[in-house]
Design the sequence.
């Protein structure tokens, strides 16, 4: 797959896939190049970018909030779900990891609402796993304490 | 309040797992998957592994649950990366490389492979 770079006039950004670059809503005269070529060309000379151009301003994807329709990626809960997987509740952890992958996929496609939904879903499963672990332990420890106490007398 | 409770619980757990080896005691909770099927899940051995880690015996910990031992530095690094405000382009790149979509799928596959091969 082709990788794209673009310049905002000061520094180069990339590599991006075509979908990612289209989601940046570059202006027609932003300079773009593909990885196989050293030559910079105005964005409008790439037919595959047609229809994705934004307003006059340059896209600044790294300064969140300066652009109305770009959203930073929501929390994926990836590492937290790994913890849940190995420490406690395998099914909940796996559900968390799968939803973490969905967050990435949706965000990459520019489906920010979908990414947020998957993020909530991932967080939900991770938290359920976490609280089951904590709750289970508390109940277990209190039963144990009672049992040990009865043993003593 | 919630965090104070969790902190106390965490401290208690560290103390218990540091002092007592779950392998020699029957008071520790057993894995439901293992109890039902007799097979080991990817999380089986975590309690024993934590005991060995707290006693700085990495070899014994790896023998009990390799996945847990290797996932700890990975998880800590990921959590730190997540919490750095205004990450630089390089940190972004690391995040995409080690915790991006491909990495997630790779981790899922590794967990499943670990699950299968530790039972063979």
Sequence:
């Amino acid at each position: 797959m082709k990788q794209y770079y673009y310049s905002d006039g000061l520094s180069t950004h990339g590599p991006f896939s075509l979908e990612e670059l289209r989601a940046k809503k570059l202006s027609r005269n932003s300079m773009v190049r593909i990885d196989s070529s050293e030559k910079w060309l105005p964005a409008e000379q790439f037919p595959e970018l047609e229809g994705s151009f934004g307003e006059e301003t340059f896209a600044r994807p790294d300064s969140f909030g300066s652009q109305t329709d770009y959203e930073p990626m929501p929390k994926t809960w990836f590492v937290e779900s790994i913890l849940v997987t190995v420490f406690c509740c395998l099914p909940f952890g796996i559900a968390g990891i799968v939803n973490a992958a969905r967050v990435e996929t949706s965000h990459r496609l520019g489906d920010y609402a979908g990414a947020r939904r998957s993020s909530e879903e991932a967080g939900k499963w991770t938290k359920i796993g976490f609280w089951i672990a904590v709750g289970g332990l508390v109940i277990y420890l209190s039963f144990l304490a009672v049992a040990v106490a009865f043993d003593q007398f | 309040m919630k965090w104070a409770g969790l902190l106390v619980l965490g401290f208690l757990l560290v103390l218990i797992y540091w002092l007592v080896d779950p392998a020699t005691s029957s008071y520790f909770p057993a894995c439901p998957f293992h109890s039902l099927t007799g097979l080991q899940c990817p999380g089986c051995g975590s309690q024993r592994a934590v005991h060995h880690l707290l006693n700085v015996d990495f070899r014994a910990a790896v023998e009990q649950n390799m996945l847990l031992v290797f996932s700890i530095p990975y998880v800590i690094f990921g959590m730190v990366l997540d919490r750095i405000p205004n990450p630089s382009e390089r940190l972004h790149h690391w995040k995409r490389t080690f915790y991006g979509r491909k990495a997630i799928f790779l981790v899922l596959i590794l967990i499943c492979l670990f699950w299968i091969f530790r039972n063979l």
User: Anything to note?
Assistant: Helices of chain A lie at 18-23, 78-87, 90-108, 112-152. The interface with chain B takes residues 62, 75-76, 78-80, 82-83, 85-88, 90, 94, 97-98, 100-101, 104-105, 108, 134, 136-138, 140-141, 144 of chain A (CB under 8 Å). Confidence is low (pLDDT under 50) at residues 62-67 of chain A.
